[in-house]
Amino acid sequence: MGESGAPVIRRSTIIGEVELMFLGTYEHTIDDKGRMTIPVRFRELINEGAYITLGFDHNLMVLTNQVFSNLSTRVNEMSITNPVARDLRRLMFSNAIQVEVDKAGRILIPSFLRNMIQLDGQAIVIGAGGYFEIWSPEIWSPRSENILNSETNEQRYATLDLSLQL
Q1: Residue 15: CA count within 13 A, CB half-sphere
Q2: In sequence order, what E strands does 10-156 have?
Q3: Distance between CA 118 and CA 2 in Å, rounded?
Q4: Higher per-residue confidence, 11 vs 38
């Protein structure tokens, strides 16, 4: 019991972390102006704004302000004499734009980003933990099939430490 006599509810920090993750796969449409409705669950996590940038797999990444800030700090700490670090800066920052969710629960995806990933009319929205991705269905479909291939996965993930020990 707490000081007021009310029961004390203890929440696991793990549950709290999971509640702040982008999870699931959704299909959405993009209107003629480039606006896409964000899944309701995701809206809660980006209600203070987000950044959208080109991803690494011919997709878009949508990051919360905090995640984008953390990633930006790490990228900016990399040496400017390193050509790989310079290319990462170019990829990440030259294609980034801040977005806000409108009253209808949509974000505006700029045409230059839509064109870069062949996004037209339909979109697949993929939760990826600390951020979410937006894919063209034509590009996501073969990628998803590859990801779900159990024979390939046995070899692909064998070297990763995926133990369930806490």
Answers
A1: 3
A2: 25-29, 35-37, 50-54, 60-64, 97-99, 106-108, 122-127, 131-135
A3: 56
A4: 38
State the Cα–Cα distance between residues 16 and 18, nearest whole angstrom: 5
pLDDT, tens only, 14-67:
444 556 799 999 999 999 999 999 999 999 999 889 999 999 999 999 999 999
The answer as to CATH 3.40.1550.20 being correct for domain 20-150 is: yes
State the Cα–Cα distance between residues 33 and 109, nearest whole angstrom: 9
- The count of other CB atoms within 10 Å of the CB of residue 155 is 8
Run of H or E residues at 94: helix 83-94
Short-list 53, 74, 60, 77, CA closest to 124: 60
| 152: helix, strand or coil | helix
Which DSSP symbol is given to 60? E
Q: Do the Cβ atoms of 88 and 78 come closer than 8 Å? A: yes
Phi, psi of 105 (to 5 degrees): 80, 25
User: HSE (CB half, 13 Å, CA atoms) of 81?
Assistant: 0
